[in-house]
Amino acid sequence: MSRNSRPVYSTESGRLCPDCGQAQDRCRCGDNAVRQVTPGGAITIQRERKGRAGKEVTVVRNLPLNAMELRMLASTLRKHCGSGGTVQQDTIEIQGDQRNKIKNFLQEQGYEARLAGG
After folding, report:
1. Are residues 1 and 50 in the same domain?
2. What is the pTM of this model?
3. For residue 91, what are the contacts with CB-CB under 8 A and spacing of at least 6?
4. 30 and 40 fall within a common domain
5. What is the pLDDT averaged over residues 43-52?
6. CA 53 → CA 56, 99, 118, distances in Å?
7. Which residues contact 58 (CB under 8 A, 6 or more apart)?
8. Are residues 96 and 75 in the same domain?
9. Average pLDDT value for residue range 5-16
């Protein structure tokens, strides 16, 4: 193993920050936190109903944000859509079919967002 190698993932705490070595949601680096888009690049916005007793939610995936930024964006999206929602692991769930509102908002913020699913 080279001297420049460092752990990037821990089975106990998940993805690690390359600078401070802490779990991504406990990163001390602030703006230097891990920002990595999953393969495919664009943020995906999808409507889901399965497993939710027939209630629709809009799910936003592949966001290149740390945990704190994800919570802040979720709060902004809830206010923008006038709806409830939550952060589940690395996704944002907003109540109702809000796909177009969220897509337009994210594109205005400079993100590459696309609708997924049917």
Report:
1. no
2. 0.65
3. 59, 60, 61, 63
4. no
5. 89
6. 9, 20, 19
7. 45, 46, 47, 48, 93, 94, 95, 96, 97, 98, 99, 102
8. yes
9. 67
Q: Give the Cα-Cα-Cα angle 35, 48, 56 (nearest 5 degrees).
A: 120
Grade residue 75 by pLDDT with cuts at 50, 70 and 90.
very high
Regarding whether 97 and 73 lie in a shared domain, the answer is yes
E strands, the chain, are 9-10, 14-15, 43-48, 57-61, 85-88, 91-95, 113-115
Considering the chain, what is the average pLDDT of its residues?
80
For position 118, what pLDDT does the model report? 64
Domain that holds residue 1: 1-34
Q: Which two tokens stand for residue 32?
A: 């230097």
**Same domain, residue pair 26 and 73:** no
